[in-house]
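User: Can you fold this complex?
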Amino acid sequence: MIHAIRENLSPNRMMIEGDFHGCAPECPTTACRRVATKINYHHMQRMKIIGLTALLAVLITQTTIAQIGKPFIHDPSTVIECDGKYYTFGTGGGGLISEDGWKWNGGGVRPGGGAAPDAMKIGDRYLVTYGATGGSSNHKGAILTMWNKTLDPTSPDFKYTEPVVVATSDGYEENDAIDPGLMMDPTTGRLWLTYGTYFGFIRIVELDPKTGERVKGNEHVDVAIVCEAAVLAYHDGWYYLLATHGSCCDGSNSTYNIVVGRSKNVTGPFVDNVGRDMLQGGGKMVAATSGRLIGPGHFGQMVIEDGIEKMSFHYEADLDQGGLSVLGIRPLLWKNGWPVAGDNVKEGTYEIESERRGYALELNVDLVRMPVARGWNRNPNDPVNPVPSQELKDVIPTWPTGNIDARIGDYMARPNQKWTITAAPDSSGYLGAPYYKIVIAETDRALAATADARVITVPAFTGAPEQLWRIEQLTDGTYRIMPKVVPNSKEKLALVSSGDSTPALAKFDVNSDNSKWNFKAP
Amino acid sequence: MKRKNKSLLPVIAFVILSGLLVDANTALGQAPGQRPRVVLPPIPIKGDTTHTLTKHFIQASNIKKEPDANGFIQRWLLLEPVRKEIARNNILTEKYLRATFSADNFSTDFIVVPKDGKKVKVGGEELKWYALESKTYNFNLYHFTYAINKPPYGVLFWLVTVINCPEEIKNVRMAAGVNSGGMFWLNGKEALILSGDRDMIVDNVTSPLLTLKKGKNIIRGAVINGPGMCNFAVRFLDEKGLPVKNFSISYE
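Assistant: Here's the predicted assembly.
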């Protein structure tokens, strides 16, 4: 569902405005990973020996992190922003709050108990829905809705209205009324609610967006089987039904996964990429288990701005956090008309390629030639031996020691073109991801923004905000790279290719390849 | 939250999780909120709750029946369920399925066609055969158990149907989806097996290329399920993945 939140950009689109700050203390679990990386880094700095590239590759693991803090939740509602904070509610009551969208802790308040809520902002109020049961053995259930003027439990305006029943299951019909999901149709302004689980059908009903009550006389429509936690989304003329298949509540053995079908009609039929109706169990994969993050389920869509969308959900088990279920937030991509979970850039060493021309971001230093061998006019019996790659030690004596400008050039796999990206040591972040530091591999030379909208490297990373970078995957799969701050400026600028070979900071343009980047294996 | 597992396990899990939210707030990020209280409003019964086969099925007859428009086979002989103790469907490994279907088989003659209404002993229980046609593309065995007033969970069903081909049809694949595990045989030979905790997804598993011979072809199936709504759908696909429909279906 499109949730969001602060302001309508248009009748159909909503935006979460970024006020992305926050230097929260490290959580123990993530801190372990961070400290390990830091120790590894400084250790390598001291070593400065041949072969560090290989060592770095081993020591900097490409971890995927869900969220930090105490992001423990099950069946989360779509993450929603209220007065500069982010909220999600879970099964059993209560929920999580985050100042920055990256570090989460308890504190959310949702009365009513029950399970698997959802929430969205409508006008200047928040509509919260939940199932009275988590699925009962007799399949009797009810979906309720209630309003609040704010989600901040410390606000004097915080008060839920009396919940009203909008859908039920009687224990005999082919439906169990749990797992509600909300979607406001951006083309009509009509409010739809999906609900149901494996017992029979997923159903769609219409609610009145002014009251949150069921539209009088509205009859349900059956749209899917063998899934749960279904929710509608709208994109580019299509209605998408996203639902969770597989089994839950079995920790690391849970097989939860998020699938999708689509339709031109809000009430279906929803068909997958091979023509299977979701009433036949169809569904194209959106998100599955990823590394040590097991069993994603309970999808929610967040449209941040044109070209940037995110999905909130939970993993059934984060093996790095005790195997507990945790909140997940990932970029949401649209490929060939289908949604698919994207990825935050993983810690590691990359070529940073411009989408504009395919050139690579590099340190502006002179080329150091490599030995040349030619494949012609040679004795065919001469031995053929591998040529070692150029290494940092081969070139770093030629580099200036002060600030060095960044440049964009032909990628030649040279040391001045390889960037190591790690999460910011201060654990600061924005919605769904940490800020990153970007340094030339095997060095502490860090990419930094300047007050005059240039991009340079400084000899050593200091943690200054202009050295921290917000890297977000766009809906087309490329990435936007933005400094946390531009010195002496309040403007939100992004790294762009102002020419094929010239990086600069400028306003992000989702329709221009100048504003887009790729991270490739070096 | 998944309710696929219809036993008490998910309810227990729900209660435990909710309890943890209250009792272990220092470990969990989500605030405690309130203890889960299941307070349901009065919910009127919306439809017919009598135990009757005719709600979802038609008594099979000798009237010629073809697969439906998408090739699904809706006419089957079904044996009343064999009771099985299955707490979670992820125990339905291939090894488990083979052992169970071997131990609780109604007949080792895989081309035998049982008679509608006859009884057979399996696992010490005397069970009855029903010749039915599903009103939908799939065959909902939960509805079958409700109709005959048998327990719906922890069940093993044996199925038989007869495919009558006017001519030999080469290079077809049997395609099946079940909730949650199953196995199918064609003319006495294993065609496919669906192991693990599966959802009833059309064409979830397909067989190697097969030949439907001219005349009668016997399909036997076994579908097993612990908690959840037991269900299956079977059809044949040609080499292009299109449904095969040029045959009729009988039960004898």
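The first strand of chain B starts at residue 57 and ends at 59. Helices of chain B lie at 8-23, 94-103, 141-147.
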